[in-house]
Amino acid sequence: MKKIMAFVSAVLLIATLTACSNQTAASPPIVTTFQPATRVTTVPVATTQPTTAATLVPITVEYEAEDLDADNNPAATVITLAGNMITVEGNGATVDGSIVTITSAGTYEISGVLNDGQIVVDTADEETVRLTLNGVQLFCSTSAPIYVANAEKVVVTLAAGTQNYVTDGEAYVFADPASDEPNAAIFSHDDLTINGDGALTVNANYNNGITSQDDLKITGGTITVNAVNDGLKGRDSIAIRDGAITINAGADGLQSTNEEEAEKGFISIEGGTLNITAGLDGIQAQTSLLISGGDIAITTGGGSGNTSVSGGGMWGRGMMEGNPNKPADSAKGLKAVADLTITGGTITINSADDALHSNGSLTIDAGILTLASGDDGIHADASLTINGGDVNITQSYEGVESAVITINGGTIHVTASDDGFNTAGGADGSAVNGRPGMNQFVASGNYFLYINGGYVFVDALGDGIDANGPIEMTGGTVIINGPTENMNGALDYMGTFNITGGFLIAVGSAGMAQAPSASSTQYSVMQTFASPQAADTLVSLVAADGTAVLTFAPTKAYQSVVFSSPELKNGETYTVYVGGSSSGTATDGLYTGGTYTPGSQVASFTISSIVTGGGAGGRFGGPGQMPVRPGGGNWRP
């Protein structure tokens, strides 16, 4: 029986092919179950918050005792490899020249060197075959050195303290010319588990490194895969519980491909260490990808430097959505077709394409993520939800992009050469590996940005937040260092931007500067300046009693400041200063505590309306408006 129940959709049917003492679990299986992110977050906003209309199947991974037990069976059949000869001590295996064929379930201990031959598993019984690799060097020039033609399940155990090597040739010879299988150095038509405390190096010169046409599990071992194509491939699923895995792949690092069964085609990583260098995607799941633990480092497509661009505002100037230098083929870090969910782990990605990508939904609940991308740092076609975790996007073209973005918690730092946040969905065509198209977005009922909590810091050369629809902010902290050129703004939204709570500071150029909408319930202030202020020049808003409600040092030159906070009160008078100094503590340029020593006074005003502003330029309450002084605000330059 197959023991893994899976999660959302994936690709292809299996073909059969030819090639060059029973064990029973004594204890119940260990079951890992994950309920996919069909959660609906209730938010007290003025508009109705849409939810993703998708029925997702839970991921359930069962680890049987034999998946986790690396102890050798003392009654094992012993297979000894000696150059071009193979000897067998025990039952269940036959030898034909340099090919040994295992025909019965049981445990087989294998050692020695095979110059050009093959280990074939072809059993008809419904029990597990265990191959204990006890210091082997396998080479097959014309096929898979380890080939599971038929079995209920195969467990490959790496004996403690041993080094094991499996290497194939650059060209395979198939018994059936119409077949292309086996196509991996270790190939199984059936469930395959790798465990143990030893080491395994797979050199795949023909195609893939390790492939299972059913479920592939790794629960231990030190595994290195060097493959001209994909590193690890499990058609129905890949589940990693533990182990130290290094993959150098010409194509994808990990790949699951079953799109025909909704509960399969997934990848689940619970623990272990993964170091992946891939020419294309680092980890690709045809349905869902779940990461709940582990230490993962991924480099794809040569890294983010191969497709990075300098200078922001490509969308604003050329109406082009997406990085024009992104690779023609998908070279993403983590990629899922239906859903990508991260609930833990430490993840470091340096990718030529999107660092995190989902064609459907994407959820981050926890974890430490450091992302450098040549295109989007985080992209989801349909919906993106961040509930927690520490997310640091150190380099990107656009930082965070989805049709619907919801921030409920977490700490998020974004550095972008164009937009920091963009509610634009899959319009860049990246979901299907295409080049970006020309897209002129309009206000849409399908695009939403919700900020209900968390901490967000943006440093963008394009728009800090580019919302092709409304924004609702009910809580959290948002700090934006926006563009210095006037074709973009720190805030750029269509429809309304309603603030009912939270802390917002957005600085940038003045030509396209926007303030929140007058329909908000929390007061906002917008101040523009006659000329740009130098980077790191403090801007401070001081109440009549001398309390500095804002002291901030922008990272770049700025000519507009938008500020909203529960501390702003109707009828209170505030003074805007630039320069000066503060004895407080600065985090991301925002000072807390200490005393502000004023610099030059720029303006003074009394709040009498939801949005109060002064200076020249800027827009209040929505797009398409001429720069105007907000009604009811009394300001004095």
List the main descriptive attributes of the protein structure presented here.
47-stranded mixed sheet, mainly beta, 60 strands, disordered N terminus, 637 residues, 5-stranded antiparallel sheet
Description of the structure:
This protein has 637 residues and is mostly beta strands. The protein is built from 2 helices and 60 strands. The strands form 6 sheets. It has a 47-stranded mixed β-sheet that branches. It has a 5-stranded antiparallel β-sheet with strand order 50-49-52-57-60, with no helix packed on it. A two-stranded antiparallel ribbon has the order 1-2. A hairpin with a 2-residue loop joins β54 (585-587) and β55 (590-592). The longest helix is centred in the middle third of the chain and has 5 residues, at 314-318.
Overall strand count: 60
* Shape annotation: elongated
Strand content: over 45%
Number of distinct helices: 2
Instruction: Please compute the radius of gyration using only Cα atoms.
Output: 29 Å
Oligomer: single chain
Mean pLDDT: 85
Which structural class is indicated by helix and strand composition? mainly beta
Distance between the termini: 78 Å
- Biggest sheet character: 47 strands, mixed
Helicity range: under 10%
Low-confidence stretches: 1-19, 21-26, 37-55, 311-320, 427-444, 616-637
